[in-house]
Design goal:
With 178 residues, the protein is mainly alpha-helical. It has one domain (3-21, 28-173): Orthogonal Bundle (Arp2/3 complex 21 kDa subunit ARPC3), CATH 1.10.1760. Helices cover 76% and strands 0% of the residues. It has 6 helices and no strands. The longest helix has 40 residues, at 128-167. It is elongated, with a radius of gyration of 18 Å. It starts with a helix and ends in an 11-residue tail after the last helix.
């Protein structure tokens, strides 16, 4: 199997694991979907990368349940994957750009989705005070979003790098090192 096919297969396997983590019980907003979008954007061909987080949401939402904000949320993940695809190509500075993209994606998701809640839900007055209230009440959820984006993005890229390194024959399994 060539390295490109191996990398794509491994990426899809890790993404599938991430999808399963969204379905099992987890703390509020502590889910791997942004990390899947960032990781997929960096390692998969662009068209596939953009559809992977959307497909992940479709599958997991079908299990969890559909809701009115789906188009906004799915669009956010597609845009995050596109940004990752454009910003995290080969070359120097991927860790710095990836870290900035992860934090920026958390903030982007927070701003867009909470604005959509303010506009679409009817939960808040359509005034400046209502908008401020919407964002203020969402801050506790933002903490979980940032934490999960950092943890899951680091985990996906870390596991991917270690497995690829091992597959290239640079490491032997511990049992063979005796």
């Amino acid at each position: 199997m060539n390295e490109k096919r191996f990398s794509i297969g491994l990426a899809i396997l890790l993404i599938a694991l991430g999808v399963s983590l969204r379905i099992v019980p987890h703390p509020a907003n502590f889910a791997p979907v942004t990390a899947i979008a960032i990781f997929g954007g960096a390692v998969l061909p662009r068209k596939l990368a953009i559809w992977v987080p959307v497909a992940a949401m479709m599958v997991s939402d079908a299990v969890i349940g559909f809701y009115s904000m789906m188009p906004v949320i799915w669009a956010c993940y597609a845009l995050i994957a596109l940004a990752s695809s454009l910003l995290l190509g080969r070359g120097r500075g991927r860790v710095v750009r990836g870290s900035a993209l992860t934090l920026g994606s958390s903030l982007f998701f927070f701003i867009v989705t909470n604005f959509a809640v303010w506009v679409m839900s009817g939960m808040y007055n359509h005034t400046w005070a209502g908008l401020v209230q919407c964002y203020t009440l969402a801050i506790p959820f933002f903490r979980g979003t940032v934490a999960s984006d950092i943890v899951y993005t680091a985990a996906l890229f870390g596991v991917f790098a270690v497995v690829r390194f091992m597959a290239r024959g640079h490491l032997k399994p511990a049992a063979q090192n005796v």
